[in-house]
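Record passed on underneath.
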Amino acid sequence: MTERLVIEHLYKIFSDRPEPALAMLRAGKCRADVLEKLRHVVGLDDVSLSVPSGAIYMIMGLSGSGKSTLARCINRLHEPSAGRILLDGEDLCALGDKELREVRRNRISMVFQHFALLPNRRVIENVEFGLKLRRMPAAQRRRRAEEVLAVVGLSKWAYHMPHELSGGMRQRVGLARALATEADILIMDEAFSALDPLIRTEMQEELLRLQRTLNKTILFITHDFQEALKLGTRIAIMSEGHVVREGSPQSIVLDPGSDYVAAFTREVDRARLFDARSVMTALSPVWRDSGRILMAASPLGQGPGFVLDAEERVLGVLTGSEMAQARDGRAIPEPDRRFACVSASMRLVDVAHQCGQGSPVGVTDTDGKLIGLLDASQVLARIGAGSGAEVHHA
């Protein structure tokens, strides 16, 4: 996967003379040391991360962790004190004022927590605003605004004023305005935090729906770990200006790496986070001819197994004794067609009832090919692991 945005050793010191603070941090001193000695606030302390193209990359942390400072450094609303910010290989920190304005107009869009709509302009004029700054012709920008409002389901509200819309609808206008510019990077800074819980959930679903269609590269800032898990392709967790843990949602919950990160994971609904792939047992081919393949969890073919066709799609299942019969070269019995298969991406909350039927449960990839076997005890163990689980330290 191509890395769209790469941040290398980024620092932000809120001072006109950041050099002494940078020297202290690079010598191993912490944020508190700098504040005590120099009275300078450290916003970012040696942050490095990579955002893949097409990802929803979550920056998560408590208040004061540096997550919003990071967002503002990326488009240089805050000027970084040191480090590099590479957008498709181009260092944004090295740009002059003219080039930076072009980046803000064309390549990076932001959606803020408090909507930031122009109250005296109609919805469609708000959506057009960034295009107007680009000096796009009026007819062209109106067409583009209408297209984007249709995408977010607000066509009927195009000529209403912002105060006539609900909070969720106003946030969708803010999202439409950002999407209208067709920017390379969309930064969403606590974009749903001000919304009521029900509207917030609707907006999260709306973003996931849009992402399936538009495949944008999104940097999403949040203090809510459940939101990070629901939306994120990858998550970076910040504390004291550092990135303290980075990885996929499932990997972070399985291995927090510290007590700080583990505190976020204790209340996670693992049944809705983990998928079938995360607990399946890989299968090995035991026997094959021109038309059929036998697959089992054991390379020796011990225990029950699956009979596949030449395309590796399941025809049925065999008991352990029937597998032994086939392994020994005797005729393969007619497979039992009472089996279940689930996709590798299916969440365990949906998988669990399949495992309770008593028949083997296969796991298939996006092409319908068998890639694994589910065991009910493994599914229950993964769902049941929680706050009492040991914290693994990286």
